[in-house]
Amino acid sequence: MKRRKFFQYAGLSALSTALIGTSTLARSSQAQSTGSVTVQWLGHTCFLFSGDGRRILVNPFRTLGCTADYRTPNVVANLVMISSRLLDEGVVEGLPGNPRILSEPGVYEFSNMQVQGIATPHDLNQGRRFGTNVVWRWTQGGVNLLHLGGAAAPIMLEEQILIGRPDVVFIPVGGGVKAYNAEQARQAIDVLNPKIIVPTHYRTAAADPDSCDIAGLEEFLALMDGVPITRRSTDSISFSRASLPETGQKIEVFNYRF
């Protein structure tokens, strides 16, 4: 009994510590500027976020398999956030300048802004196959952003508490062995209830047909029947508080410029 109570208290203590960081992050988010953030899709789960005088790059990759015909995302950034480090994921070699790199869960300070990384499994076997995926949340341009990286497991209550409700969620939808398929993504969206949904990690013309195991976008969009979809003609979108839906949700689909 004493041993069981010890682990219960230890778990509560860890969650309490994380919640303190989350509370601080929320207060910091409220103090952020209320301008806008411009998001550029660089392929797969990689995006560049520009706003508040910061350039944040999430999940640069190596061009092979499902990313074979994308351009290498070697762009200038102040901060690089990585969800996982595998052969084709979390590749920082060749990035210009000397950006700060975050790849572990935790609460971080960067340029008068707080960023939180939350650990989730990168597979459906509690991470025993592909390890930990780091979900990143932060506020930029007054917009609460959540990048789920290669999330593969359902979102548990503790994770939901830490994540809160995002304004914009970047969520994998193509399945394979390392990330949500269309139905799993829909279930995660039901839990998170974001205002704007940006699908990631799906099969495009960039894929090597012999070594890419993920599905295309249409299955996910069909499951989200009733949610308005905007298919952009460009690879960039700007978000602000004023541009967010007052009620309901919408899906934003970027256009990669091959």
Short description:
With 258 residues, the chain is α/β, with parallel strands linked by helices. It has helices at residues 2-30, 157-163, 182-192, 218-223, and strands at residues 37-43, 46-51, 54-58, 79-81, 100-102, 106-110, 113-121, 132-140, 143-147, 168-172, 196-200, 229-231, 236-239, 250-253.
What would you say this structure looks like, in words?
The structure is a single chain. The chain is α/β, with parallel strands linked by helices and 258 residues long. Helices cover 21% and strands 28% of the residues. The chain is built from four helices and 14 strands. It has helices spanning 2-30, 157-163, 182-192, 218-223, and strands at residues 37-43, 46-51, 54-58, 79-81, 100-102, 106-110, 113-121, 132-140, 143-147, 168-172, 196-200, 229-231, 236-239, 250-253. The strands form two sheets. The protein has an eight-stranded mixed β-sheet with strand order 6-7-8-9-10-11-14-12, with helices on one face. The protein has a six-stranded mixed β-sheet with strand order 5-4-3-2-1-13, with no helix packed on it. Helix 3 links the parallel strand 10 (168-172) and strand 11 (196-200). The protein is globular and about 45 Å long. The relative contact order is 0.15.
Percent in strands:
25-35%
Are there runs of 5+ residues with pLDDT below 50, and where?
1-14, 26-33
Helix content: 10-25%
What is the helix/strand order? HEEEEEEEEEHEHEHEEE
Mean pLDDT over the full residue set:
89
The overall strand count is 14
